[in-house]
Structure formats: C-alpha cells, structure tokens
Amino acid sequence: MNIGIDIGSTASKVVVYDKDKDEILYKILMPSGWNSKETSGEIYKNLVENGFDVDNSFVVATGYGRVSVPYADRVVTEITTHSKGAMYLLKRDCDVIDIGGQDTKIINISNGMVSDFIMNDKCSAGTGKFLEVMSNRLGVSLDEMFELSKIGTPIPISSTCTVFAESEIISLMGQGRAKEDIASGVVHSIANKVVGQTRKFRNEADLYFLTGGFSNNPYMVELLEKLLGKKVETHELGRFAGALGAALMGK
What we know:
Blueprint: E1 2-7, E2 11-18, E3 23-31, H1 36-49, E4 58-62, E5 74-75, H2 78-90, E6 94-99, E7 104-110, E8 113-119, H3 128-138, H4 142-151, H5 162-174, H6 179-198, E9 207-212, H7 218-228, E10 231-233, H8 241-248
Parallel strand pairs: 1-4, 4-5, 6-9, 9-10
Antiparallel strand pairs: 1-2, 2-3, 6-7, 7-8
Keywords: Iron, Iron-sulfur, Metal-binding
Organism: Parvimonas micra
InterPro entries: ATPase_BadF, ATPase_NBD, CoA_E_activase_dom, Dehydratase_Activator_Redct
C-alpha cells in the first residue's frame, strides 16, 4: 500500500493507493493550518483511525510542507508529483497548470515526462492566497467571488504583488466601483498571469490540465480556455493530483 501526502500552504491532500489493484482506497482534504509538522501528525492520526497501517506502508511526501512529515519514506517536489498525477488522470501529454496557495506552476509534459516547467515570482499576485486576501477585503466568500466575477466587467489590476494589489482594491472600493467589477478584475488578474506564464514556453501546448484548488471551479476552467484559446481539462480528483502522484511514486 502506498500513501501520498501533499502538504500545501493552504490545504493538505492525502491519497491511499493500492498499487496491486490500481485503486484509490481513501483520500483526505484538510486545512494545512499554521504548522506543517502538526498537520502531518493529524494526517497520521486520521489514517490510523481509519484502519491504515502507516508504518508498514510506503509514504511519499510532497508540497510546501513535505519536509515536515517525519514518517515519510521519500520526499519529492510538486513538479514531479503533479505531473505524475496529471498523467494518471488524463493519460496523455499536456501542460499542467497548478494554481496553488502561494505559487503557480506550469509543467510541460512531453512523451510522458516533464520536459520543462516554470513557477511564478514569489510576490506574484496570481495565486490562491491572492484570491483569499481579496475576497476577505471585499467581504465575500471564495464562491461568492467567482459568482460576482461572472456578472462583472473586469477592472484591470496592474499590481503584481499581493500587498500593492490590495491597496489598489481598497482604492477602487473608495471610488465606489461596483463589487462585481472588482471581483471580476481580481479573478481575471489571476487567469491573465497564468496565461502569461504559459507564453514563456517555446512550444505552446494544445491541451492544458488544471490541478490544484481551482480545478473544481468550472468558471476558472472556462475563463482559462477563453484566454488561452486552447482546451483546458480537469478531473474530479484534480485537486489531489500532487498527493496521487506521490502515492504512485511509492516503492
């Protein structure tokens, strides 16, 4: 039995995989909290309580807090695990788009292998954390943010840093601009930064696969398709791609 643990900056994902049956036996999605080591302890406890023998399983850790899993047999970067998970779910070459809490990664998969990848700048505003900060500023939930974005006319957000972008949002609110237009500007800002990253590859893909926290959001998939001018697919397990990829790399 293999266990993949993906401790992200915002959410942690776990997949228990039976390699003999090629079957996902169990999965967990939980907040990462403030301390990755405590989170790894909670994951261990949850697995044991649900009948899994963690100590006699092969555990692979990935993500922002991967080094904080003391019972991991192997530690692997998100680039590798997200590509493995995406290939398992999609079963063909693509460019993987992973919009995480603190960073966004674009991974080019060619002939079933990672051929290139790019990550955003540390202070870039094209991440999940950026959306969380802006939705809090607007006093709406993340789901409400997307609903507002659908009906709004996007106001361009020029700042590439979350701190400065928040000041920009405050200024727009002070001007009395419509909440839905600001929300649309924020969501479009994230999508445009993702598109900008994909353009840095020499050969643009004909198919993109969205993983991470936004992968279950139809509006983000639709928006990325529109801006990229290419097909964007996802999967109900897209958010678990990193944990799944880690589990697949078990011994």
